[in-house]
Design goal:
This protein has seven helices and seven strands. By secondary structure, the chain is of the alpha/beta class. Strands 3-2-1-4-5-7-6 form a seven-stranded mixed β-sheet. The mean pLDDT is 93.
Length: 206
């Protein structure tokens, strides 16, 4: 990886993913995790403080960026639950079939190149009846906003670690052979609309 990707980008992503509207979304989603958890895209560990230690036994934190894993050290040390870091991307999960109770996916699916393979891996490792908890930004339903998303996306991807603005997260999760228990959508407050349309909820493998 380049110097920018390893030493600059982790700080930019950490700052962007720690703003209040996104932190609010994490509080809505992460406390519902149970049992053995796979978090895809641990990043700097912003979700760790929101896991409920009375419900969670272990979090496998999948994070391919060495820079992000370095940045996560403080959050891992302060985590209320046990964390095991895994240096691999979302397309390659080194866990057994049907071995986790919950997959947590927050602001990660927008960046994974092989998102279909990544969702297949999440489905593979979930136990029967296990849940995918998600909060992701993506394609807006308003034509005017979507037009600007498409215009901005090439430059955005270059500076934001491959983050896509136009991924239709609901359709992608459904294509990954998941069925929604619930899904909510909307623009996050105090956020630029081109990057602020969110999808959140839970789904189960079908």
């Amino acid at each position: 990886m380049s110097f920018y990707e390893e030493h600059v980008l982790p700080h930019l992503i950490g700052a962007a993913c720690g703003v209040k509207p996104i932190t609010h979304q994490r509080r809505l989603i992460v406390p519902h995790a149970e049992g053995c958890v796979l978090e895809v895209g641990l990043g700097a560990g912003p979700n760790l403080a929101f896991y409920d230690p009375s419900k969670v036994d272990l979090v496998f934190g999948l994070e391919p960026s060495a820079g992000m894993r370095r940045k996560a050290r403080k959050a891992v040390a302060a985590s209320p639950v046990k964390v095991e870091l895994i240096d691999l991307p979302g397309e390659n999960v080194p866990l057994d079939d049907a071995s986790v109770d919950t997959v947590v996916l927050t602001y990660t699916l927008c960046t994974i190149p092989g998102w279909r393979q990544a969702l297949a891996e999440m489905r593979r490792v979930l136990k029967p009846g296990g849940r995918l908890l998600f909060s992701e930004h993506g394609l807006a339903p308003d034509a005017g906003i979507a037009k600007w998303q498409r215009r901005i996306e090439p430059a955005w991807k270059a500076i934001a670690g491959g983050c896509h603005l136009t991924r239709p997260m609901d359709r992608m999760i459904t294509e990954g052979a998941f069925s929604f228990d619930r899904i909510e959508t909307g623009y996050l407050p105090h956020s630029p609309k081109f990057a602020g349309f969110n999808y959140w909820g839970s789904a189960r493998p079908r």
